[in-house]
Every structure is written in C-alpha cells, then in structure tokens.
Specification:
This protein is α/β, with parallel strands linked by helices. It is built from 16 helices and eight strands. The chain starts with a helix and ends with a helix.
Length: 441
C-alpha cells in the first residue's frame, strides 16, 4: 500500500497538469471553426475615408480623448507593442520581424488607402472577417455605408443643457470634455432650426430631444450612445417630472443650479431619452469601464450604479447594452444580465487584458447568460501607424482566441459538446447581435 501512495500522487499530478494545460490551450478544431465566423462588431470608432487634401476626420467621437492631454495607455495599446507586427502582416503584407521599417509600412498603407478610396473601410473589415461594424460617431461619412457600417449616435449632450461651469471647475477632465457636449447640443439645436434652448422643458423634450432622436432613426441609427461616465457618475436615479420642469425653467436662461438640482434634471433627461429610444426601437449603449484620463472617476462607472434605471418598469421596452462589459466589474455585469432588457459587450477588454484573462470573463458570462453577450472591438485610431484597423485586428484576434479558450474549458469540463461550443461562438460573435438589433440574417 505504501508503494502505491507515490504512484497515486504522480497520477494526480499528471491529471492536474493535463487539466491546467487544457485551460491554457484552445482546441484546434474549435479555433478553426471560430476563425471562419463572420462577426458583427457591436462597438467601434472607425474613421471615414479622407482623400489627400481633405479635412481630417473629427467626428469619430463626441468626446475626443486627445482633449485630455497625456495619460497612460494600457500596455497593449503602446505603439511599440510587437503584437502589431501581426496586424501589419495580415493587413498590409509587412515582411519584417521588428518595428523599424515604419516608413515602408506607411508608404504601403497610403498606397492601399489610395487604391481602395471610399472602399477602404469595408476593405479593412474584409481582412478582419467582420461582416458589420457599429460606428460610434457624431455623423457618418465617406466609406461608412450600410450594411457594412451601422450608425450609433451620441446623445449625452441632451442631458447637460444648463450651465456646466460648476462641474468644469470641479474636475480638470470635465473642463476639457464638457465644451464638446455643449458644441454638440448647439449642433442639434441648429438641426431643428433653433438658435437657443426653448424656455420650457416640455418644448425642449418635444422640439429638440424627440425630434433629434427621430431624425437619427431616419438617418439609419440602430442605437444611441452615452459616454456620461466621463462627465458624472452613472447613478441615474428616478426623478420627478414636475421638479425637473421647475429646475429647467429656473436656469435655462442663466444662473447655476446646485449640484443636487442639476443631477435631478440630468437623471430625468437620461430616462426620457432612454424611454424615447425604446419607443423608436433604438438600443441604448452606455460606456461602462475603467476609463482613461488623469481624473476619471473609476467608482462612477460601476455597472451596479445603473440598477435603478434598469429596474424602471417604464424602460422595459428599451434594450440597454453595457459597453465594455463594465470592466473590471465584470461579475457585477454578469448579475445585471439577469434583467430581461440588459446586454453586454466585451469591447476594449480585448486590448486592456490578454486572451487568458478575457476567457475567464467570457466563460463566467456564457455559463449564465450566453444569449446576452456581444462581440466588440472598440477600434480606435491612435495615429497613422496604429490606426483603427490595427486596433480592430488586435481586438478581433484577442476575442476569438479568448472565446476558443473559454469554450475549450467548458468542453473539457463536460459542460457542453463541441457542437454546442460552435453554436455558442456563433451566438457571441454574430447571432445575438442579429437578434437584438433585428438585422438581416
């Protein structure tokens, strides 16, 4: 018996080692199947095509992050990240094993862009295996046509109609970002033929907010986006209509509302926009992640802050999407997926973290609510060398590898069959989005 003990310990060790190995290596057959799936990207910021001599694209975000000055980037977004070698090889045929031949790379990129012209954005999607990309933009532009690109409009501007001076004094990031929302609101006012805010809240809601939402719907929007966590906490509480009316009327022509009063009006306006979006069949996307900026309030973007809004019975016809999955509060996000109208994508996690950690997030979500998960890249331009197609490549590659790892672990633990694993991959990468947004199959 004593001789058997070392042998049994050795067997246990090898079994444990094999299980650990299975958790870090994806099933090759499953990975190959996942690589063939044409994905639907729930969240990105693609740039319109700009020909030589044209004005650079400045409508790829309502809150351009360069307004914040210098701030630390996640390691994987550093321009010297060697993972971008893979992007350059796949996209542009880069033949070098280091990052030194940037001049040659840029010449190739410029040549491809010239050759493709307005077709360049769709060409980039073809290289990535992405069928449709949801473009979070102030407005669409050259090369960003449906059905390859679908518009997600920015509507934070509606909830900050009064003086924002006090907020700007309280936070350097707010001071840099609020003016962009104020300019966008002026643009929305001009679009409906107004030079100034209406005197009453009811007219503002009808003539500005609802009218603009209806216009966005007519122009092809499938969702509206809130980046409010860059401007305040996400605790959009229930607010009384009458109180909101009085606050708006008192300060619309000047003066500074108290922080409490202004929050009440913002809370009311957020829920009004969400309710109208639901009426129009527009999903509401909400930025929820540990954001960038030296003074970003991380505690203000905990997804649980949205629970009150998600539980509002009058908003049950509105579908909400937690953009970026609330990272690092991903377990909190998992709990909110129990709401019938709440979904989450994992965009940006695809470059904040590596496939191994992302696979754990995805497995936790898939084991509970697999029909609520959406793929996203958060493709964004970080300059001519690391442009939006490179970030899309990094996110796309990471997402598929993480998904394969998570599903392999579930197969190894006998939770699902191989056929079920492929079906789950299809759901996450495209089928859930098709169902949520009623897209052509």
């Amino acid at each position: 018996m004593k001789k058997l003990v070392p042998f049994l310990l050795l067997v246990v060790f090898f079994v444990a080692f094999a299980n650990a190995l299975a958790q870090t290596q994806a099933d090759e057959q499953l990975s190959a199947a996942i690589a063939k799936i044409k994905a639907i990207d729930n969240h990105a910021h693609p740039l319109r095509y700009v020909a030589a001599g044209e004005k650079p694209d400045d409508e790829f975000d309502a809150l351009p992050l360069d307004a914040l000055g210098l701030f630390p980037l996640p390691v994987r977004l550093h321009p010297d990240n060697k993972e971008y070698l893979g992007a350059w090889r796949d996209l542009y045929g880069y033949k070098h094993d280091d990052l030194t031949q940037v001049r040659e790379l840029m010449e190739t990129k410029q040549r491809v862009a010239r050759e493709q012209g307005d077709k360049f954005p769709a060409w980039a999607l073809d290289q990535l295996g992405i069928e449709t990309m949801f473009a979070n933009r102030v407005a669409m532009g050259r090369g960003l046509a449906a059905p390859r690109f679908r518009w997600v409009a920015f509507d934070d501007a509606f909830i900050f109609p009064l003086s924002n001076d006090a907020a700007e004094r309280s936070n350097p990031d707010y001071r840099a970002l609020y003016p962009h929302e104020e300019l966008l609101l002026k643009r929305y006012l001009a679009n409906v033929g107004l030079r100034a805010l209406p005197a009453t809240l009811d007219v503002y809601l009808a003539k500005v907010v609802t009218a603009t939402l209806e216009s966005q719907k007519r122009e092809g929007a499938i969702a509206v986006k809130f980046e409010a966590a860059y401007l305040r906490k996400l605790d959009f509480d229930e607010a009384d209509n009458g109180v909101a009316r009085r606050i708006y009327s008192r300060y619309v022509r000047g003066g500074q509302p108290s922080a409490v009063n202004y929050k009440t009006l913002q809370d009311f306006l957020f829920r009004y926009v969400a309710r109208e979006a639901g009426r129009l069949g527009l999903a509401v996307h909400i930025h929820v992640i540990s954001g960038v900026g030296a003074f970003y309030k991380q505690s203000g973007s905990n997804p649980l802050l949205l629970e009150s809004a998600f539980n509002d019975p009058s908003l049950r016809k509105t579908n909400f999407v937690i953009i970026h999955g609330g990272y690092p509060f991903t377990k909190e996000t998992a709990s909110l997926l129990s709401k019938p109208n709440v979904y989450a994508d994992f965009s940006a996690q695809t470059f904040f973290i590596y496939p191994r950690e992302l696979s754990e997030v995805l497995r936790n979500w898939m084991e509970a609510y697999p029909d609520k998960i959406l793929f996203g890249t958060d493709a964004f331009s970080f300059g001519p060398e690391v442009d939006w197609p490179e970030v899309a490549w990094l996110s796309n590659t990471t997402a598929r590898e993480a998904l394969a790892l998570a599903l392999t672990g579930m197969m190894d633990d006998h939770e699902i069959t191989r056929a079920q694993a492929v079906e789950l991959a299809q759901m996450v990468l495209r089928k859930n989005a098709i169902k949520l947004y009623n897209l052509p199959r």
